[in-house]
Design goal:
single chain; alpha+beta; Creatine Amidinohydrolase, Chain A, domain 1; 3 domains; about 40% helix
Length: about 500
């Protein structure tokens, strides 16, 4: 900014500083300080102002523009940096680059880890295998007719082939000459006979819906055509499918924090005085504000958000009240403890987050000490769980160890954490369910691998003396386990969001 301040220190420096002070004062009262596009507007205004000041000599105009420029400059800096949302063409480019990287650098190792040298995925249009859907190029929104993907490990590389009427994007080349073999199943069988794999992995699983994408019809038609000599080689590709879905690459992990930041920013906007008007706004109003805001930004939600209230009344608050027995459209009042469960989908990655806000009573500048302490108990429970992440541990083992330690520390805990990534409730080790705190057979027995992401979802029940009742601090934050330690992708909530915001309050 020296480009204009130095031109005439007396005429520009003071107004510029005044503009900064004005911005800092007014920023709290902007209609929507969480507008993702605002930072870019500020930056453009700054650049335009700099050019104007450089070109003008009229002192009065320079004073005015210096003041305005200081305002915009401070406004731009005051905002929490929020990632830009890519236009559709750029999103497609990123998705395809990530997919190519996963095929090249991830898939071969997974196939060798699980001992499957041939993986066959079969889907028909609008009834896609969940795994196959993650392998389609960005411009393919569904399978086409019947789409069959074959991955064959030669020992030096993995062939990526499509038994389909078309190439599947640029990464999976068509291997069906319809003039030679008009029947699609015959073409697949010929390929298998030519490659002579040791194991043919198909996506069927009693444990994971994600890995159970082969339909009854496709199974029947395939096995009817498969020669008798190859049938004993057919195995479940469950662990390979889970490995593909749960493992995050370096390219994905570089993007994931920004996606979590977008989601956090939307929560902060929803739990602000610009959305919540005590005595008027209902919990459903906040829910639909979130849905509409996500749509306006060109994003998607992978589940319908929920917003609920705990307050100083005689109403008990349990899991069922949160998940299925929640009163519709409660009017938010001063003194309420608000809770949101929210997640977005962007660049084929998902978020799942739960946070709390407190609605200040007249004269209050902070949440009651007991509620702040309750949040700290929830944070401690998060630490108890994440400190115990070790490669090879099962979800059930993690659950048991964390609950035992929580009990030893006097925390009334419930843990129901899950993998996240290609799906919101993703494949991988389940770490409890809210109604299965003794362990989850099957999915809970699956081990932790490196470079996998999780939603640390749990709650701590804490007595609030002033309210003469117990509240549940329900938290959920997304993070990654790198094989050595767990870290949050965009931090976690350690302070209650305040409505209205106070000048010193931070997320």
């Amino acid at each position: 900014m020296n480009v204009f301040c130095a031109t005439n220190q007396n005429l520009t420096a003071l107004p510029f500083k005044g503009g900064i002070l004005l911005a800092r004062f007014l920023y709290t009262f902007l209609p929507n300080p969480y507008d993702i596009s605002l930072q870019g507007v500020c930056q453009e205004a700054i650049q335009a102002g700099v050019r104007y000041l450089a070109d003008r000599t009229h002192h009065a105009m320079r004073i005015v523009f210096a003041c305005l420029l200081g305002f915009w400059f401070s406004l731009a800096l005051a905002q929490t940096p929020v990632p830009s949302i890519l236009p559709e063409r750029d999103r497609a480019r990123v998705v395809d680059e990530i997919l190519e990287d996963r095929f090249t650098n991830l898939l071969p190792g997974l196939m060798r880890r699980e001992g499957i040298d041939c993986w066959v995925l079969i889907s028909r249009e609008y009834n896609e295998d969940p795994v196959l859907k993650t392998m389609l190029p960005a411009t393919w929104l569904s399978a086409r007719r019947r789409t069959i993907l074959v991955f064959f490990d030669t020992g030096t590389e993995v062939e990526k082939l499509a038994i389909a009427r078309y190439d599947v994007g640029s990464l999976l080349k068509g291997a069906w000459d319809i003039d030679v073999r008009p029947n699609q199943w015959d073409a697949l069988v010929n390929l298998l006979q030519t490659r002579n794999p040791k194991k043919i992995g198909l996506n069927f699983s009693p444990t994971y819906a994600h890995a159970d994408g082969l339909t009854h019809t496709e199974w029947g038609e395939f096995t009817e055509k498969l020669p008798a000599g190859l049938r004993p080689r057919v195995v479940s590709a469950e662990r390979l499918a889970v490995g593909w879905l749960e493992t995050r690459t370096a390219k994905e992990l570089a993007l994931y924090p920004d996606i979590c930041r977008l989601s956090h920013d939307l929560i902060a906007g929803a739990f602000s005085e610009h959305v919540v008007k005590p005595g008027v706004t209902t919990t459903e109003d906040v829910v639909w504000w979130l849905r509409q805001r996500v749509t306006d930004l060109g994003l998607e939600t992978w589940f319908h958000p929920t917003v609920d209230v705990q307050r100083a009344d005689a109403t008990s608050f349990n899991h069922l009240r949160t998940f299925s027995k929640r009163p519709a459209g409660e009017v938010i009042q001063p003194g309420d403890l608000l809770h949101v469960d929210f997640g977005i989908s962007y660049l084929r990655l998902n978020t799942d987050q739960q946070q709390h806000a407190y609605v200040l009573r007249p004269g209050e500048t902070a949440a009651p000490a007991a509620l702040r302490a309750a949040l700290q108990r929830g944070n401690r429970l998060q630490d108890i769980l994440t400190e115990r992440f070790r490669a090879g541990k099962s979800g059930n083992q993690l659950l048991r160890e964390a609950l035992e330690q929580a009990k030893a520390e006097g925390i009334l805990a419930s843990i129901y954490s899950h993998p996240i990534g290609s799906h919101g409730h993703a494949a991988g080790p389940t770490i409890g369910l809210w109604d299965q705190q003794q362990g989850v057979p099957g999915a809970g027995d699956y081990p932790l691998f490196a470079n996998t992401a999780y939603s640390i979802e749990l709650n701590a029940a804490v007595e609030i003396p002033e309210w003469k009742k117990t509240v549940r601090i329900m938290l959920e934050e997304d993070g990654v386990f790198d094989g050595e330690r767990f870290r949050y992708l965009d931090g976690r909530q350690t302070e209650l969001l305040l409505i209205p915001r106070q000048p010193t309050a931070t997320r």
